[in-house]
What does this fold into?
Amino acid sequence: MKPTYRRVVSPPFARCAFLLLVTAPAFMARPVAAQQMEESTEPRQPSIWMEPRISLQHTVTSNARLEATPVSDQVTEVIPGLRLVSNTARIKGFFDYSLRGIHYARGTGSDHVLHNLNANAVIEAIEQRAFVDVEGVVASQPISAFGAPVSGSPANPNATQSSSFRVSPYLRGRFGSLADYEARYSAQDTHTNTAIRSNILTQDWLLRLGNRSSGQVLGWSVDASQQTVDYSLGRNIDTATLRAHLVYAISPQIAVSGVVGAESNNQLSPIRESNSIVGLGAVWQPSEHTRLSFDHERRYFGNAHNVVLEHRTGRTVWRYTDSKGVSSGQNAQSASLGSLFDLLNGVYARQELDPIRRTQFVLAEIERLGLPANLQVFPDFLRSSSSLQRAQQLSLALLGQRSMLTLAATRTDNRRLDTIARSLGDDFDTNTRIRQRGWSLWLAHRLTPNSSLNASWIEQQSMGTVSGLETRVRSLSFGLNTLLAPRTNGGVQMRRVVSGGPAIPYRESAVIGTITHRF
It folds into this structure.
């Protein structure tokens, strides 16, 4: 019998290590900051910001389980949380955690507790030499691409809690004037609360040498990596890669690159196969507000690419990404304070240089307008093996004096790469290809300094290769958000959801009331 990955690395140990690495250095930095304030009378920006909060949310829904036969219910949630942002010399990052206690008045679901975590930090263990990257995400994810979206009722049977923790220690430095070096190890443990999808453990080793200083016309790098991906319901995938890069700066704004290499893995066959890698890339940055990068490689599965275009003005931000490559299933979630936060954080970067004060301002603006911090159209569905994925995303934010318009559009195309394991219990058992597309449009308008209106229109579509396996979900919502007291916000939202297609036809109407107090 194939041993499970739980014997390789203990998830409780990895999660405890993650929490210690994130929180301990931040709290240890408090006495240092206090000592600096005592030694100098000059005003200093805070290096650590911590804000506890608690929310009470009540939902009246006509279809708590989002099924064809509706059953109404009232759902009450108590949600305490804590947000921590650090910008000390030794640790830079954030920690955002909330606990959701859920009660169903009519028993459409069992009372339970859910966790939500977004944390990401870079810890400088030894000055300019040894570092540790830590990342943690705990959130609800859709089990199937053809079930109801997770953004609705918590009683949704297609939603499950997924947790992903990553720890990556590494050394970085320079051999005189010859080359830079980086030696890194990374372990990422992803666990789901459903038995019909794989838990995944990934371990990576990386060694990189290179030389390209600022202003240098010609640069080079060589990196060697080893990766092992262990699926609890599938098999182990081992990959070894060697790449050599050459970069040439045509001008200060334009640089081109080439890459050659080789890789060996057992992805497409039970034994390891070797293949060559050939690629090219380019970066164009005409100003600090605009950047376009492009990379293309020919690999064992075909062509891979990565395109990123970003443009900012004083009141707008545009971002487009297009990538194609191998997805292990662990990239479904990324630690972030939200995609809307990321967009606005870039807009206000020139107006507020201090990262903590800018974070406070952006989060307060999002909450004041009653907008969601995350504009993700649909979270990636769970799978039990690696897939070939192409993902295209467009994000746009337009900022007025009293209004904000945001648009997010996503299109993905997934195909299973592992043709050896035929039955793993996920959507690819019956579909060779799964396509998803959707968009969301949010509009917020500030009525007064303390009150705002918001509205949204969201569409999502999933299509498989099985005849008739298609879902289409449309959601419309209107909301009012207001400041009830200093540091206390209240809001009411009305939601209407219509799901068509033969897979999961259902309708839902809901009214949601929320009160949040920040301490």
Q: What stands out?
A: Helices lie at 11-39, 339-347, 355-369. The first strand starts at residue 48 and ends at 61. The chain has a mean pLDDT of 85.
